[in-house]
Amino acid sequence: MKEVISMLLPSYSEARKRTKSNSIKEFYEMNPLFSKIGNGRKYYIKTYGCQMNEHDTENIKAILDDLGFVECNDYLNADLVLLNTCSIRENAHNKAFGMLGRLKHVKQLNKSLIVGLCGCMAQEEVVVEEIMKKYKWVDFVFGTHNIHRLPYILNDLLVSGKQKIEVYSKEGNIVEGMPVKRENKYKAYVNIMYGCDKFCTYCIVPYTRGKQRSRCKDDIINEIIDLLENGYQEVTLLGQNVNAYGKDFSFSYNLENLLEDVAKTGIPRIRFMTSHPWDFTDGMINVIKKYDNIMPSIHLPVQSGSSKILKLMGRRYTKEDYLILFNKLKCIPNVSISTDIIVGFPSETDDDFNETLNLVDYCKFDNAFTFIFSPRVGTPAAKLKDITSLEEKERRLHILNEKVNTYFLENNKKMIGKKLKVLVDGVSDKENMLYGYTETNKLINFIGNLNLIGKIVEVEVTDAKTWSLDGKIV
Ligand code: SAH
Ligand code: SF4
Ligand code: F3S
């Protein structure tokens, strides 16, 4: 059994605090003394969750490389396995614990294997309690606020051989200058903000990611110019709620201004996500219309078509507000709009659910991510009385999925015969085919030469399926 050497445990009461203080900017520094601690060891990281987590993994990999570790793509060959976890729904949570179960057996055979857990689940009190009680063999845990501390955490662990848990539950700082090992050579994630202050009643993110902190314009623009100089074609500006960008500044600079400044860098493609309907302004819509390099593809989660449920969710808009915004966005030429929908929120009746179906019939979304409500410990919605059976929730999800799928196909069919600009991503699973994404973020497969990868080409749509298009190079 492992003794715990140092512990800094998550606290929900701290995590939900929001003060008026400005966020503090820190700079990542690597202590050169640590530069060889990973020598001779291979690492494997498994990432669960959203683009934010995927991007954190890109930072973590670069830090591990700097420490002398070498990446491998099979956890059975690794000397260090790290799970970068997600708390958004119970199944993400279960997947990570399932993987820990497998790693327990691997560790029984290979005692020197180092196992770590980070990401959003590390910020949850209940998870860390369980790790300390039932998973004492997990070597280290760190949270979303202290990725930059990884060299110190690993050094402490390797020197002492004792379990190390370090999770900050604070509003959070902004750490600049972290190294990054990008997965893709042409498309990059760029964080523009961290955290979230919306506190939708079902959502764990404000607790796991802290207060909203917007990155300085200059840091963002410099990162994008650097990407451009290195041949990148596309950036996705990331945040839990990008439309609230800049609301935490003491001066006036918002997403409208930032989008315009990013557009002026000349990077060929700009995407941004996720947008919360509450903060979408006419100014932002005008900037999207004005610049050809801002992609006309908007992810606008609605969550429910019932204003009663939206109120209980703390979303701060009604069905009518959403539809007004939706119609404004539809005026952007060739725009595609995608969404997220939760079914089975506590007290959702058949009538409420039908309102969601009606909204889907009206909006005919280009894409939709649909979920059954999952109660998350510590959130207000987890305490609401919920009498709907799981069976009924599954039934609603099934009906909803059937409906959204018909619109994906209907929208895709309208593209047949059109010539679209496509950023070529790579070789498709289908033999001899390349794949890429259109400006409206639709997946398209076509025959082409490998030297087109990373380039923007024109492709004519020849066939449409529910989740993808087929085409031929023009
Ligand atoms: N910041 C984004 C969403 C991040 S989470 C936004 O506000 O739009 C991604 C999606 O997961 C959410 O849009 C929501 O549909 C879903 N989700 C979040 N918490 C959930 C929960 N407790 N149960 C089920 N789905 C949830
Ligand atoms: Fe969660 Fe709402 Fe924040 Fe999105 S806006 S991350 S759903 S609290
Ligand atoms: Fe999951 Fe955390 Fe992202 S909870 S969705 S990894 S912000």
Q: What report would you give on this structure?
A:
The protein is α/β, with parallel strands linked by helices. The protein has three domains: 4-166, 3-Layer(aba) Sandwich (Rossmann fold), CATH 3.40.50.2300; 177-413, Alpha-Beta Horseshoe (pyruvate-formate lyase- activating enzyme), CATH 3.80.30.20; 419-473, OB fold (Dihydrolipoamide Acetyltransferase, E2P) (Beta Barrel). 32% of the residues lie in helices and 23% in strands. The protein is built from 13 helices and 22 strands. It has a seven-stranded parallel β-sheet with strand order 1-8-7-6-5-3-4, with helices on both faces. Strands 18-19-20-22-21 form a five-stranded mixed barrel. Strands 10-13-14 form a three-stranded parallel β-sheet, with helices on both faces. Helix 8 (255-264) links the parallel strand 13 (234-238) and strand 14. Helix 8 (255-264) runs parallel beside helix 9. It is globular, with a radius of gyration of 23 Å. It starts with a strand and ends with a strand. The relative contact order is 0.09. Bound molecules: S-adenosyl-L-homocysteine, iron/sulfur cluster and FE3-S4 cluster. Iron/sulfur cluster binds next to helix 6. Residues 88-89, 202-203, 205, 240-241, 274, 276, 301, 303, 340, 342, 371, 373-374, 376 line the site of S-adenosyl-L-homocysteine (SAH).
